[in-house]
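TL;DR need structure tokens for one chain.
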Amino acid sequence: MLAVAIAEAREGLSEGGIPVGAAIFDQDGRLVSAGHNRRVQAGDPSIHGETDAFRKAGRQRSYRNLIMVTTLAPCWYCSGLVRQFGFGTVVVGESRNFQGGLEWLRSLGVRVVDLDCEECVQLLGDYIRAHPDVWNEDIGEE
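>> reply
TL;DR here they are.
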């Protein structure tokens, strides 16, 4: 599942954007949708990887049994999306570069699996070092 999100992150990077990808799967591991951070490309601050995948999933009767897979711990905005729509599980590629709302999600009973994937750590870490201003804008830092 993480491979789909990583491919999305790499696509975003190739487009000149922030390399964060996400995918949504059902309980049986079938891909529902995938997306990537397109804030830079579209000039739209709301298109994070998770929100892109969420929008592409279309309307769902329930999100409880869906799995949100993302290359990076979701920010507060995306953590709010997970909470608002009741995703039961979030699989995170890494949380070393950014912790986001992981502990908050756990406290709400969301199952959080942090894979601590070195490829994800390096992909975003390299981007942050090369483009700190764009990264800070993405996470709402001055």
